[in-house]
Design goal:
The chain is an alpha+beta fold. Helix content is about 35%, strand content about 20%. It is built from five helices and four strands, in the order αααβαββαβ. It has a four-stranded antiparallel sheet with strand order 2-3-1-4, with helices on one face.
Length: about 160
């Protein structure tokens, strides 16, 4: 699927894992702060960081905006099942999803469902209209199931 960066074969050592853990907690940490926390010279720390970026281990640095601040106080998880004869349209369907502003993230699955979509919306009518306009009306879609999110939290940032 376009947009997915191919990861180079990289062997991460203990310092790389610690560096990734620190960045996962706060990607705005300075190189000086990272190097001090890791006990490395700043130049060594920067070289490791650049290597992790160039190899594709670090895909991007980003900001997470509170949906409420944007007037999007409701979240939903929508599972999508494509029609059996439409599996060849998975890439095109994924590309369509990527451009929709309501989508916070989506996953391509192996199993009963083909996609799992995390959306943000103003209210239940916004979610309903999104599902009708962009999912149910798509001829490749066999069915959807929408679940409202009552609470959302992140797990361990890096899984250490």
């Amino acid at each position: 699927m376009p947009g997915l960066q191919k990861l180079q074969q990289v062997t991460l050592d203990e310092i790389d894992h610690k560096l990734l853990g620190l960045l996962s907690q706060n990607s705005r940490r300075t190189n000086q702060s990272l190097s001090e926390a890791l006990g490395l010279a700043p130049s060594t720390c920067l070289a490791r960081l650049n290597g992790l970026r160039e190899s594709g281990v670090i895909k991007r640095f980003t900001v997470e905006v509170a949906p409420d601040a944007m007037g999007l106080s409701l979240q939903a998880l929508v599972s999508v099942r494509l029609r059996p004869g439409a599996r060849h349209l998975m890439n095109a369907f994924g590309n369509e999803l990527r451009d929709l502003p309501e989508i916070k993230q989506f996953f391509v699955l192996g199993g009963a469902d083909d996609f799992f979509i995390h959306i943000t919306a103003k209210n239940t009518e916004h979610i309903r209209q999104f599902v009708l306009d962009h999912l149910s009306s798509n001829p490749a879609v066999a069915g959807t199931q929408t679940n409202l999110v009552f609470e959302h939290d992140h797990g361990s940032a890096y899984g250490l």
